[in-house]
């Protein structure tokens, strides 16, 4: 219930992730987050605007402005908000990479580089430490 708050606008992303929000009361001068299309029923009385029954924007009844890329599915992410989740086994930017992340290759290269730089610095800085 936000009816007694002196809000002039709702900040963008305030309800990001609120996928199970089913009833919201805002001051009567404000619109429901996501607009009227994001809710099954919007009623206004003297004390506030009541937004009831959050709709799923991914069900196909409302066309999305930005459809999800290939290899991903639409998922609700709050009132009027969507997110695109990669389908297995795809991952990465726009779900274009297939398979799993190469953990062993990444760890091996990172470990080798760290040990090499450490040995180089240890060898070059040892002489300066002995001189003091």
From TrEMBL:
Organism annotation: Tyrannus savana
Transmembrane segment boundaries: 101-122
Protein name, UniProt field: ARAID factor
Keyword terms of this UniProt record: Membrane, Transmembrane, Transmembrane helix
Listed PROSITE patterns: EGF_1, EGF_2
Annotated EGF-like domain residues: 84-95
Presence of the UniProt keyword Transmembrane in the record: yes
InterPro entries registered for this protein in UniProt: ATRAID (IPR042350), EGF (IPR000742)
Gene Ontology biological-process entries: positive regulation of osteoblast differentiation
């Amino acid at each position: 219930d936000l009816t007694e708050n002196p809000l002039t606008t709702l900040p963008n992303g305030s309800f990001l992730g609120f996928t199970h929000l089913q009833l919201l009361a805002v001051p009567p001068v404000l619109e429901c987050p996501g607009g009227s299309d994001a809710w099954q029923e919007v009623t206004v009385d003297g004390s506030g605007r009541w937004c009831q029954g959050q709709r799923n924007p991914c069900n196909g009844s409302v066309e999305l402005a930005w459809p999800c890329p290939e290899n991903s599915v639409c998922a609700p992410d709050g009132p009027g908000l969507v997110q695109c989740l990669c389908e297995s086994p795809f991952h990465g930017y726009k779900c274009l990479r297939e398979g799993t992340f190469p953990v062993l290759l990444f760890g091996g290269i990172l470990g080798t580089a760290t040990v090499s730089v450490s040995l180089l610095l240890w060898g070059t800085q040892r002489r300066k430490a002995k001189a003091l």
